[in-house]
Batch of 2 targets.
Target 1
Amino acid sequence: MKEPARILVVGGGYVGMYTALRLQRKLKQELRQGSVEVVVVDPEPYMTYQPFLPEAAAGSISPRHVVVPLRRVLPQCQVIVGEVTAVDPAARTAAITTPAAEESDAGHLEVAYDELVLAPGSVSRTLPVPGLAETGIGFKTVEEAIGLRNHVLEQLDIASSTRDPAVRDAALTFVFVGGGYAGVEALAELEDMARYSIRYYHNIKPEDMKWILVEATDRILPEVGEALGRYAVRELRARNIDVRLRTRLDSCENRVAQLSDGARFPNRTLVWTAGVKPHPLLAATGLPLTDHGRLRCTAALQVHGVEHAWSAGDAAAIPDLTAEPPADPDDLRKECAPNAQHAVRQAKVLAENVAAAVRGGPLVDYAHKNAGSVASLGLHKGVAHVYGRKLRGYPAWFLHRAYHLSRMPTFNRKARVLAEWILAGLFKREIVSLGSLENPRAEFALAADTGRHNEAS
């Protein structure tokens, strides 16, 4: 009996999940007959919709509603929770490490493939800043977003319950490094949440808090344009947020943020959102990479010069066919920006081309002109630059929500997010910290070790 053609999708993020979702529809007959199988590999059994992480951190959306279970939306695919550690393009095999293999010391699982879709995404780009690895907090996963929410609320509790002014000031100082979408939106939403929360603390005032945004370049939110970037700076500063442009974080040892302009901020919260870099897996594949470590791809989303290998999203350098061609024909075209807008649309074309490769059909090139950008600056505040029009304030914030709600996968998740927004408008914010969820065995371990609870009673 002939083995089914196996399509291996590495990564369950934007590109991975949307590609597999469309392959389910395009290859429905082949999947039903068993002549094709789609295997999706990701370290997590869900896809995270990252634009909603700031709202999840602020408590506007439940964390379980910003993730999409892969097995539920991909019932015709095989989902493997694990990590691809190596790829052999010549033999067309991939090595996968799974939690079960780690538990049993069985080594890695080797999977053969006919078509390979590489979409592992990106990871946080860190710099050798002293103290960063020990004290920094990222903002790329739902776990980090919820952990940061709990942490900020815990700092308010610490500040409210101490008489030590040094401890209090450090607890109420929040430093964010990076002026892109992640940093600005996370800071704006959390500052909103903290400002609301302190009305329930009798000894903390809004002016007691210090929120600092550190950006190495001369503007924030470069995607929305210079004018809206300046507007965003003015809006944040009007809320008493200290925005420091052309400034770098030199050190954060001993929980003291030392900036390049000479300022020092003792703190207990330092959030690092200063960019991303391609996933380390790409360097281990032996496939052609750009100087920035992304896979060099054609406009048809094939890895350049390699058959049966495809990529898109953060991992891929895709030529932008809508941009002006270079003056010198030997120069490379401008690349598509590695953002969610392109990733979702590339996934559609990628699935079409992979299905065409399986069936022996023609390939199509990816071409999409950037529609614009939207960013939230907290509740009812935002900026947007869409199809040449610039919006600010409430209209931009509403457009931000409407756009991302439309992009959220599955009707189930759309309805849940919309319901939570409606309820949030009718009721007060939740200000409870559930930091103990991050270490659920602590209470039981304490009781077992000390016997502090009287079992005889």
Target 2
Amino acid sequence: MAMDILNKVLPDSDTQPDQSTDDGDRDRYAHYVQKEKITESAVTGNPVIALCGKVWVPGRDPKKYPVCPECKQAYEEMTKGR
């Protein structure tokens, strides 16, 4: 995956209610998801999958949450040596 297609969940993806299928600590973080998947989710309402494995329909402002440490670690491992 190229670095340019990975982003934090964008604020403009706040068009759908949060319909999390996960529970616990993962709900307290902003997650990394492929950029085009965020757009697709905003249009279709389909859930997205974060690098850490969390599955949900984005609906919260990610700027209000710290970055998920699992997503951050996965992203750093993917982009190592670039």
